[in-house]
Amino acid sequence: MQASSSHEPSHLKRTLGLPSVLLFGLAYMAPLIVYGTYGVLAKASDDTAALAYLLALIAIAFTALSYGKLARLFPVAGSAYTYTRKTFNAHLGFLIGWATLLDYFFLPMVIWLIGAAYLNAAFPHVPSWIWIVAFIVLTSGLNIVGIELAARFNIVLMIVQLAIVAIFVALCWHYASAAAAPGGIAMAEPFFKPHVPLGATMAGAAIAAYSYLGFDAVSTLTEETIDPKKNMPRAILLIALIGGAIFVIAAYTMQLAHPGVDFKDTDSAAFEVAKMIGGDIFVTVFLAGLILAQFASGISAQASVGRLLYAMGRDEILPKRIFGFIHPRFKTPAINIAIAGIVGLIALKLDVATSTSFINFGAFLAFTAVNLCVIRVYLSGDHGDRKIGVFGGLVFPLIGAVSDIWLLASLEKTALVLGAVWFVLGIAYLCWITRLFRQAPPEVAI
User: Fold this and answer.
1) What is the spatial distance between Cα 56 and Cα 205, in angstroms, rounded to a whole number?
2) Which of 15, 183, 195, 441 has the most CB atoms within 10 Å of its CB?
């Protein structure tokens, strides 16, 4: 009995219901960060930030539908990596997983770096590296101890975030109403500006789409979700829609309170608006909320990269002894979480602009692959226990794929070049582990 039990495979523990999965997805997106990036987006879209967020939501919603369908068909950890491998083949699955690592692997680092930048601005005498290390140690500890503890912690953090967003929206509306001309507030102004070319709004939408990264990340928690075939599709779509509604409303009211893109500092435009509408007290509350948002987002982002590495390690695409390890007590991929924390230390030598320039390459490539996977499933006729119709299996994912390719092509040249280099390195590694494609990467039974 002892010998047989020692060889039993490790499994992640199913403890997350729909509310917890929703909170993880929303925490990953960090709704409050809509204010942290508002100035950059407003400038890029020529003061049509609300419309840019709305257009991005339309593109993301179609992709979210595709994620939901695949999460029901393949209820295992791994996200786009797993879906592509199961739907197409192991080689393509590896390449999508490799590309996705750009998003998952480096996004926690960016989150911690932004949080440290905010804290350094508030406390300039404390070196940034102290804040970065503190973020890494705390989030790593929470994620290693267990997903349940992190989920409960996220509940508190999300309540605080949503409360600050609600206050910000209310103050913007009140300020806009008080400053309105005798004819009242120009309600349609944030959505309709005849002099702004569509190309400017589209450029803004490409940036706005970055804020939605996270609606798909919860699919990596499938093996820890109760009744994943029902809860995971619902969670993915709801996260995209709820997050999108928050972004659109926040950008809309910001434009009403502060029309135009004339800010003292574009990178901190929200602080300027916060002080204008609420004074010094609200600015302090707002800063505290931003830090909490970064902390919550860092927990979810690090949890996701840990589980993606676990799925690839379990398949022996990465060394199984390291990446396929599950902590015997906490039942979490502890080594992977620690690796994500160590990678985050790279933030000590980078700035926000450099670190965020290429992570979106992998995200949009993964989104495109997921939509193509649904089309492949539909054309194969193997729809599982629920038939997929022509709209859900062909029309919607095709719209999603085209939208995601457009977003990918809209990235700046630096991001495209760095992403392409990373992808070529992935092809080289795949050649090595498959002996020049003569054998498939190892697969795992669902």
Assistant:
1) 5
2) 441
